[in-house]
Model the fold of this input.
Amino acid sequence: MIDKRTICCFTGHRPEKLPWGTDESDPRCAALKRRLDDVIRTAYDEGMRHFICGMARGSDLYCAELVLALRQEKGDVVLEAAIPCLSQASGWPREDRARWQAILDACDLETVVQEQYTPGCMQRRNRYMVDHCALVIAVYDGTAGGTRQTLQYAMKKGVPFIDINPV
Done:
């Protein structure tokens, strides 16, 4: 049985909401990734071993890649992909689909929240992640959207979170 106290999930903005968009060579993106790496490593040091990623473009995939690097180093790290629907990446640019697939292939666990897309499947995925974790790490700039809704749900459920402003 997995101990929920060792589970952390990620939520955050997609490239469209990040100041650098898809330009990961932007120094602000590099700075965010360094902050995320520090927070993930601190969570690991505090006992987190299982990380759940919602597999969305942008900050979710940044976090997943950082967890995979940590797993290479530490060995006792589990990465779970929480996929809202089977077609999640189907409309994405080819490079993003390939990145998504490579991360998915490296995951230890895969949870598909539902097979077909519906308007509520992303929110169901987010609730699944919060319901199964003891800590949420969020890339959040204060704007309305799915990340805010996820953090509001975490507050309602009493799940602590760390929010990192991307700028």
Q: What stands out?
A: The chain has one domain: 4-164.
